[in-house]
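Quick one, tokens below. Sequence please?
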């Protein structure tokens, strides 16, 4: 039986465990441009519009920095509403002398790549018009050098940077997995995402509703899981259009034998990397 996730499902927020909350808070506020929605001694919640949570940082005792070459987060991707917003973000990052790891044109999007102070990967991107790539992701998708000068022209006449625009969302999340077939079985066969693009036997890009990808999966970091007390990705959420669709999904997952923790505020499952997926409504 073919399983399909609801076409309006999208990524909600990302929750990271951190070793230095003060330093990381400063980075995500001043460099990336999030607004602080809630701040406590051990946890900070960030937003772009003042309401919707997009990023949570939590400091816990005894954490060690996530070792390189382990499964888990490759990057989480901040989707800006307009190309001009990406241009302004690039200008701001340059003014802040923020080290960049790459800048790419993927055909369906233009993207900047960097890491936070604890090594968590970040993509900041803007999509090209959906009509340019929908239904043709495999054909359109590429990785070419970003035409920086052309991008910067999109900001001409309005170059002031005011942080992340209110319409900013977490567009996708990209994970290092230990076994691509196992990840395919979970995310596609059981959750019901659709494969939009594949790269031989080492990467899959999957989405809902025809989006180029809500989740990227790759085996580029090997098969070893990080220690349980590592920093890095703790949880990410999937947003469903309403409670009825969410409950139907929970029931289907339970029938498939996937453990669903319904004791918390939001139903939660565990993905093949050991990260939690929180199921929420929009």
């Amino acid at each position: 039986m073919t399983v399909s996730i609801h076409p309006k499902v999208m990524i909600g927020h990302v929750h990271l465990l951190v070793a230095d909350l003060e330093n990381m808070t400063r980075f995500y506020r001043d460099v990336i441009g999030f607004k602080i929605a809630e701040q406590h001694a051990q946890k900070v919640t960030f937003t772009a519009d003042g309401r919707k949570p997009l990023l949570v940082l939590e400091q816990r005792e005894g954490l060690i920095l996530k070792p390189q070459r382990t499964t888990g987060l490759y990057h989480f991707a901040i989707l800006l509403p307009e190309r001009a917003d990406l241009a302004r973000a690039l200008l701001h990052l340059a003014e802040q002398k923020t080290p960049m790891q790459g800048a790419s044109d993927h055909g369906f999007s233009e993207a900047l790549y960097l890491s936070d102070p604890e090594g968590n990967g970040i993509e900041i991107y803007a999509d090209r018009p959906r009509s340019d790539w929908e239904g043709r992701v495999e054909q359109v998708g590429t990785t070419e050098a970003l035409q920086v000068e052309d991008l910067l022209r999109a900001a001409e006449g309005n170059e002031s940077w005011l942080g992340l625009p209110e319409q900013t969302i977490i567009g996708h999340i990209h994970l290092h997995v230990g076994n691509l077939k196992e990840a395919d079985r979970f995310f596609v066969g059981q959750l019901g995402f659709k494969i939009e693009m594949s790269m031989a036997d080492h990467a899959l890009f999957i989405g809902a509703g025809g989006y180029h990808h809500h989740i990227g999966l790759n085996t580029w970091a090997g098969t070893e899981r990080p220690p349980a007390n590592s920093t890095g990705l703790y949880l990410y959420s999937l947003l469903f259009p309403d409670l009825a669709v969410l409950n139907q999904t929970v029931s289907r997952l339970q029938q498939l034998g996937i453990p669903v923790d319904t004791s918390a505020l939001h139903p939660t499952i565990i993905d093949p990397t050991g990260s939690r997926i929180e199921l929420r409504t929009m």
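The chain has a mean pLDDT of 96. The two ends are 28 Å apart (CA to CA).
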